[in-house]
Amino acid sequence: MKIKNLKKVIKDPRHALRLLKIKLLYKFRQFEFVGTIGNRSASDNGEYVACVNEAISSYKAFSTFKQDPRYQAILEHTSYAQGHSYLEIIKSQTPSFILKIDKFKENDLIGGAKLQNFEEIGAISASTIRYMKVASDIIMIFGNSIGDRIGEIGVGYGGQLLILDKVFKFKQYDLVDLPPVLILASKYIESHTLSSAYQTISLNQHQGNIIYDLVVSNYAFSELPSELQTRYIEKILSKAKRGYLTMNSGKHNSAFIKNKLSLYELRKLLPPFEIIEERPLTHPGNYIIIWGH
Predict the structure, then answer these.
(1) Residue 122: left if φ>0, alpha if ψ -120 to 50, beta else—which one?
(2) Tell me: the pLDDT tens digits for 31-76?
(3) How far apart are CA 249 and CA 228, in angstroms?
(4) What is residue 216's three-state secondary structure?
(5) Angle between helix 3-11 and 13-28 (nearest 10)
(6) Is 151 helix (H, G, I), strand (E, B) or coil?
(7) All domains of the chain, ordered by start, with CATH?
């Protein structure tokens, strides 16, 4: 033990207990993966899937999974400042959203979301505001009618579906992700009541024969290794009439560079698309791909 830590232990025995707890948690923490090495998304980091499996099997863990640091490393980490920026965009683009804010707040009832007070709308999680902003963008880009069959790549706990279901009329929503994540999403969604229907399906289970009216992905597609990105394009994205993909890979200054399809390669594989600015810009290399508008 370092001298400075030894001095702290002598002065404060509780500090020794905290140090011991941290070391024990690190030593005995669980790592669970879905993909093999080289075939994993950024979220398949060992800790995220372990956290998801705990939330699936334990009611106590499920009731607070949004507060788990392992989960927040992947999701539920939208800051207050970002939430405020998203809210200003929503108020400018779709002010009607503010009138039904209580409906959107239903996304914060399950999972122990971190609530913060925002002017005009009160206590809500910044992550829910971000889902609202995506819905607002979709209205501005594609209009109020987005078709009957929607797909989402990388679904978290199903929050984006819950928000879109309150805004649009569609018949079917397909959630595509890792099997454990889909189980958690189903558990979460079944805690609410939808107007639409949904199904969960992994990439391997997907036959690639569905023509989606819109496919959405909030960073998840861009964080996949290039081989998986290509397979998602072949099975799902290349056939989609509309697309809205928030990207953090593909450019030289993107957050994720290694083993990702470049923007040049994406241009060759995806339907003809336009690039629009991510607002607010959460990383210099981020952008949004859209088509079918």
Answers:
(1) left
(2) 766 555 566 556 656 799 999 999 999 999 999 999 999 999 999 9
(3) 14
(4) strand
(5) 120
(6) strand
(7) 134-291 (3.40.50.150)
Structure tokens, 245? 């993909």
Q: Are 32 and 49 in contact (CB under 8 A)?
A: yes
The stretch 242-263 carries a mean pLDDT of: 97
Residue type, 282: T
- Token digits for 215? 């496919």
Q: Residues 189-210: pLDDT tens digits?
A: 999 999 999 999 999 999 999 9
Check if the beta carbon of residue 273 is closer than 8 Å to that of residue 289. yes
How far CA 3 is from CA of 7, 9, 14, 130, 247, in Å, comes to 6, 10, 17, 45, 46
Task: State both tokens at 78.
Answer: 């939208």
Q: How far apart are CA 130 and CA 108, in angstroms?
A: 13
DSSP assignment of 56-74, as one string? HH-HHHHHTGGG-HHHHTT
Decide: residue 193, CB within 10 A, 0-12 exposed, 13-18 middle, 19+ buried: exposed
Amino acid at 41: S
pLDDT for the residue 30: 76
**The two structure tokens encoding residue 104:** 């959107």
Whether the CA torsion 140, 142, 148, 153 is positive or negative: it is: negative
- List the beta strands (DSSP E) in 202-286: 214-218, 243-247, 274-276
Q: Which two tokens stand for residue 145?
A: 């009618």
Please tell me the distance from the alpha carbon of residue 32 to that of residue 45, in angstroms, as a whole number: 8
